[in-house]
Amino acid sequence: MKQIRKVLLHELVAEEIRQHIKLKQLKNGEKLPSAGTLANTYGVSIASVREALRFLEATGEIEVKNGKGIFVKEIEPFKILTNIEVEHEKKFLLEMCEVRRALEGMAVELAVERATPEQIQKMEAYLIEYDRLRALGEDKSNADLGFHKTIYEAAHNPILEKVIYSMSDAFMKFWEKPFGIETIFDDTYPIHVLLLEAIKNNDKKEARRHFYSLMDSVENTIRNVFIKGEIQP
User: Fold this and answer.
1) Which three-class secondary structure string do you get for 193-231?
2) pTM, rounded to two decimals
3) Please, what are the domains in the chain?
4) pLDDT digit string (tens) for 32-67?
């Protein structure tokens, strides 16, 4: 089964406001209901509505005028939304890469020392499945996720594992098709193979080097996948 992205409440409210604008065919400069009215209409808190309005104002879809109300703005929604959402996702993923380097990097080093033969076999099985699905052009995210989760388990440090899993929602961004591109990190597969080989050989230096190489590749892909909101050829 595919991982399901958690949708924040303000994102749902923002989408409802977009639908309201579309259904009412509101034009540039036309007024929307007040934040209080929107909160009552959608059955959410006024704080959630205000957060949704801030988001829509940031994307240029509405304008909030103090003391006057909320007004529709005429924009090129796809172009503007794409640029803003891409830059937001880029920033988030790059910041999470730094966290992964620290936490997963430590897990890799511990896994070199502590991985059991059964856990090594699990990692191998996940990579075989990943390669099979990749060849078929099918979703590989669960196989990739399983490989990394087994590394966390192989560290045999319950506190480290709990810290990593406490951030699982954020980490899942790497396995839920970032930027809507299923093949975005396919180039890292050979590095996964080298990483596993180093773990099997109890070579901590090589395991660390290959893990950092993997993260370098991920970061470079994130930085370069979009240029001005468009996918690179």
Assistant:
1) HHHHHHHHCCCHHHHHHHHHHHHHHHHHHHHHCEECCEE
2) 0.62
3) 9-75 (1.10.10.10), 78-231 (1.20.120.530)
4) 999 999 999 999 999 889 988 988 887 678 888 888
